[in-house]
Amino acid sequence: MRQAKLYRYSLPMDSGVILRDQKLTNREGWIVELCDSGKTALGEIAPLPGFSQESLETAGVQAQEQLELWVNQQQLSIEQCVPSVAFGMSAALLELEGSLPSEGNYRAAPLCSGDPDELIPILNNMQGKKVAKIKVGLYEAIRDGMIVSLFLESIPDLTLSLMPIVPGLWIKPSSSRNTYHRL
Predict the structure, then answer these.
(1) What's the order of all strands across the beta sheet hosting 158-164?
(2) Would you place residue 61 in the very low, low, confident or very high pLDDT band (cuts 50, 70, 90)?
(3) Which of 16-25, 39-48, 80-89 has the lowest mean pLDDT?
(4) pLDDT tens digits for 77-96?
(5) Distances (CA, A) of 31 to 47, 67, 89
(6) CB burial of residue 35 (10 Å; 0-12, 13-18, 19+)
(7) Residue 148 has pLDDT above 70, yes or no
(8) Distance of alpha carbon 22 from alpha carbon 25, whole angstroms
(9) How many C-beta atoms lie closer than 10 Å to residue 98's C-beta?
């Protein structure tokens, strides 16, 4: 017999985080618990205020609807769910099916916020997929472009994530993967 539970949580943050001019003092969300045939699986639904399109309350109502469908062995409509509910429900369902890897890859992408020469040896020694982040927008566009080009030329299999200091400040033209310009 299938069972489902939805737990609401609120965790105090040690120091308030500022997100889009809003201080976040608690991290709130929902934990989905699915039980079927002696197996238990969990998923997290945690819309982020100021970033997510849905509120915590909306996500909770939608999660309850999906859980009721699941318990009654009816077709779920995850594709129509808001992103946080789709993620939490999908994670729990995949865990229940045994489709998730038994071990996670918790490697962090190194951040280049200064001298790129310090990061190149780290990336060269990185096992598996090589990923890095670069903050752009602090200096002239030409300098930022040169650093991006340096990384991509030095490490051809690198996946590079640009982190604009001001969101939307940079765009990537379709003509070249190495050329960026300021809006």
Answers:
(1) 111-112, 130-136, 158-164
(2) very high
(3) 16-25
(4) 999 999 999 999 999 999 99
(5) 12, 12, 10
(6) middle
(7) yes
(8) 10
(9) 9
Beta partners for 160?
Answer: 132
Interacting residues of 68 by C-beta distance below 8 A, sequence separation 6+ = 4
Which residues fall within 8 angstroms of residue 30, CB to CB, at 6 or more apart?
A: 6, 7, 8, 9, 44, 45, 46, 56, 59, 60, 63, 88
Length of the chain: 183
∠21-23-29 over CA atoms, to 5°? Answer: 115
Using one digit for the tens of pLDDT, what is the confidence trace for 112-125? 876 778 888 888 88
Nearest to 131 by CA among 152, 161, 162, 104: 161
pTM: 0.62
Give the Cα-Cα-Cα angle 85, 87, 92 (nearest 5 degrees): 95
First to last CA, the chain: 57
| Cβ 149 vs Cβ 136: under 8 Å | no
Which pair of tokens denotes residue 4? Answer: 């489902």
